[in-house]
Description:
The structure holds 2 protein chains of 2 kinds. By secondary structure, chain A is mainly alpha-helical. Helices cover 55% and strands 0% of the residues of chain A. By secondary structure, chain B is α/β, with parallel strands linked by helices. Chain B has helices at residues 2-10, 26-42, 59-70, 84-94, 106-114, 135-141, 175-185, 205-218, 231-245, 254-262, 284-294, 367-373, 412-420, 455-465, and strands spanning 15-19, 22-25, 50-54, 74-77, 96-101, 121-124, 155-161, 169-174, 195-198, 221-224, 249-252, 274-277, 298-304, 308-312, 333-337, 350-355, 379-387, 393-398, 403-405, 408-410, 425-434, 441-449, 474-477. In chain B, helix 14 (455-465) links the parallel strand 22 and strand 23 (474-477). The relative contact order of chain B is 0.08. The A-B interface holds A 18-19, 31-34, 36-42, 46, 58-59, 61-63, 66 and B 56, 80-81, 83, 104, 227, 229-234, 236-237, 255, 262-264, 479-480, 482-483, 485.
Amino acid sequence: MSAAAEVEQFILEELMAGSAVVAIDHDEDLLGTGVIDSHGLLQLVTLLRERYGIEVSEEALTPENFQTIAAIDAFVQRERGSA
Amino acid sequence: MERLYAQVAERPDATAIVYGDERIAWRELVERIERLAHGLADRGIGAGDAVGLVLRDDPWFVTCFHAVTALGAIVVPVNPAFKQTEIAFSFHSAGVKGIVSDERTAGVCERIAAGFDAPVEVITTTAAHGQALTLEELVERSPGQHLAPRDPDEVFVYQFSSGSTGRPKRVPRTHGQIAAEADLYGALEIGPDDRVFSAIPFFHTWGMGACLVAPSTWGATVVILEDPNPFLLKRHRALELIERERCTVFPGVPFHYQLMAEAPGSADLSSLRLCFSAGTALARETFDAFGEKFGVLVRQLYGSTETGFMAANLDADPVATFASVGPGIGDVDFEILDDDGTTLPAGIDGEVTVASPAMTAGYSDLPDVNAQAFAGGRFQTGDLGQLDAEGRLTITGRKKLLIEVGGYKVDPIEVADVVTAHPKVGEAVVVGVPGKGPGEELVKAVIVPNAELEERELIDFCRERLANYKVPQVIELREEIPKSPLGKILRKYLV
């Protein structure tokens, strides 16, 4: 499963549990819509660490890296590429 | 509206709102409000009608808030991050006649409106979902109309307060009560030279009072942080905005101050003359860290949905009294009562009760709850606290959160204070969880450790400092304590 698909599944199951949504557009704004709040962000950071071994630095905690599934996927690819 | 008209008369071209690159002068803001009010009136909105607002914090929110209330209609602002059922509950309780949403919440609002028997019109800020009517159109096509002062007894706002009944309670406050709260903010000497940094939501009583009502009353500029959540991702933008706009007043919550203090890099926040923390107790560590990093001391402030702003620590040197929320402001009068309703002297803990010209007369449709919560014309806050000899209030706990263990009552705040004192504990919350017998609870500590922590060592640490029945029987380690947008701990997710 690609990182984008895995992140989408995580968001659907963990952050949007109970909602009727079954798929998320990878360009949908996750921050403005409140899908990722402070608590969800920390869960996501944990997922990236446990699943991909990515330690998200303080500097990397920016809206640009977490705005959309596509942005998160790009961030994962960059971090894996630089590892 | 009288106060907004006064701003136009005295400083028409001064900036009322900063939002991103947009700057809106008082004259322009009032013109938009007048036009929108006319447009809403044309759609049948009038005095006594409830209008729901499901908007993020932006200039539209400010415009709608003032337009609705200037018509004598009742504004019902809700958290746009709420789920449909939560918003629907509030709007059915309020009996809304119209709903204003933005492109993010339009779909949810349309579904909620469809659940009403009477027609409820949904108006969006822009035409994102093909809605027939947008605020933009209403403002563009409507002529302005001068808006007359409202009667002080007319209802201004419905907000919702949680606790004790299982469902949120509707809190009506009148024009007179909101004007009284605006006057209380005068004690902070907010004026036209101030720029208020707004990171707390307008839908909440703290944001509504400090960032909407007070600035429009006293002529201060509001600098709105765009989409402030999650604040962990927005703290750099917050620091940048405060520095760039030379903000002077920052109403926040402990979470804001903590995350800003922990942010990499620094910023020049020397323009800040008042930082107020409310919503929950400010930890000494946060007070120290923010003060050391930015050279600005955070003061505690006290308010509630039922009363609005009540008290603020305005001491010349707030270091010694950092734990206090200060004395009641103006005519706000605190009394500390014991369980029998007897007034307690300074230095003794009891329930904080308050009388204030800004407080609601009672919850809507809940006479039995009101008889207790507003007994004797005083609001029983449910907070525990004490006054000092100078009348400063210090909040020490929350009456309603006591945990029942084997006939004893355990104050979770007391246990949490002990747990947090362990050097490997970063943050802790203590809650009651169901035990084996009926009505029996277990003490559960939810811990965010800052080092590897063995359950045993924490139990031993507590046993040294607490009676056995107070020692947590359940310990859960987490990476974060779930909190509301205002930093209040969401206990329901911990039990």
